[in-house]
Write a structure and sequence with these properties.
about 40% helix, Recombination protein RecR, zinc, two-stranded antiparallel sheet, Helicase, Ruva Protein, domain 3, Dna Topoisomerase Vi A Subunit, Chain: A, domain 2, 5-stranded mixed beta sheet, alpha/beta, about 200 residues, 7 strands, single chain, zinc-finger, DNA binding, 2 domains, DNA damage, elongated
């Protein structure tokens, strides 16, 4: 436990570290003590990497994944199948699917899901940009890979209705994933089976 025996500078670092997801006060204290004992060059390199992250990382203007270039590595890869777009809620979900190796098309990151009770409507996530991509790009299939939560299901249903009249195949990721689960925590095999077992919704 952090006490007044800790120097104020160390207490402040522990306070900031403990705000990171998955880090409690004890873990934050261990990291702070490690940084205190580490060579100054290592601590400075970490600080610089964090500053560069905030300065240089932005969203890809095409799919809204994170990048430090004009396009993200996936959109810029000429080997990707451009006729398929997999729609996910977050970059963490995109990374989980990428790690499974089951999908070689492109992505569209909504940066959220519909949650009317929390005031998140269609204009608050990247739905308009998805529709604009379908106008610009030659897309044959849209795979809805939103999470199997009430918000993810509501988002998928909304998108299905929007895409009904468009000349594109719309599929939903299969239910190899437990209800209430989160894509970023699902194992690779389950993700691969869910993608392979996707079903057409219209």
């Amino acid at each position: 436990m952090v006490t007044k025996a800790h120097p104020p500078t160390l207490r402040e670092l522990i306070k900031h570290l403990s705000k990171l997801p998955g880090l409690g006060e004890k873990s934050a204290s261990r990291i702070a003590m490690h940084l205190l004992r580490a060579p100054a060059a290592d601590a400075e390199a970490l600080a610089q990497a964090i500053l560069r992250l905030k300065r240089e990382i932005h969203t890809c203007p095409r799919c809204f994944h994170f990048t430090d270039g004009d396009l993200c590595a996936i959109c810029a890869d000429p080997a990707r199948r451009t006729g398929e777009i997999c729609v996910v809620e977050t970059t963490a979900d995109l990374l989980a699917l990428e790690e499974s190796g089951a999908f070689r098309g492109l992505y569209h990151v909504l940066q959220g899901a519909l949650a009317p009770l929390d005031g998140v409507g269609p204009d608050d996530i990247r739905i308009r940009e998805l529709l604009e991509r379908l106008e610009r790009e030659e897309v044959r299939e849209v795979i809805l890979a939103t999470n199997p939560t009430s918000e993810g299901e509501a988002t998928a249903s909304y998108l299905m209705k929007l895409l009904e009249q468009r000349p594109v195949r719309v599929t939903r990721i299969a239910y190899g994933i437990p209800m209430g689960g989160d894509l970023k925590y699902i194992d690779k095999v389950t993700l691969e089976r869910a993608l392979r077992g996707r079903q057409q919704v219209h």
